[in-house]
Design a protein that fits this description.
globular; about 35% helix; TATA-Binding Protein; seven-stranded antiparallel β-sheet; 3 helices; alpha+beta
């Protein structure tokens, strides 16, 4: 019996150590994934609509667009705030689902990224 509990404890420790770089943030019905400074969420919107909403979210948050671009399956927006840069990457998962990843600053800022995500969600 003691061996069984030791195995479970080891499994828990290994699982926690492997997931130290990633966290799932759950807020309401929406699930965010935070990995290496990028806060990611899937939206039920085509990539064109999500791209327009991302640009509008940047403008609504008084950020300056430095660079932007899009094609059929990928889009990006690079912006600048008062002290740091913001990157938004959009990947088409299907005709009606787009994955949006946001990184604020070099190391990432989960709270600031969430504000931009919330703005995008309000526009979609």
């Amino acid at each position: 019996m003691k061996t069984y509990f030791n195995k479970i404890a080891l499994l828990v420790i290994v699982s926690l150590s492997l997931s130290a770089c990633a966290a799932v943030v759950v807020g309401g019905a929406a699930a965010y994934t935070y990995v290496s400074g990028w806060l990611k969420k899937d939206y039920h919107a085509g990539i064109k609509k999500a791209y327009v909403a991302s640009i509008q979210a940047v403008e609504k948050n008084d950020l300056e667009i430095i660079e932007k671009g899009q094609d059929i399956t990928y889009a990006f927006v690079k912006a600048k705030g008062a002290k740091r840069e913001i990157w938004i990457k959009l990947n088409r998962k299907s005709r009606s689902v787009t994955s949006i990843s946001i990184r604020v600053g070099v190391l990432g800022d989960r709270k600031a990224s969430r504000i931009i995500h919330d703005t995008i969600a309000g526009l979609l």
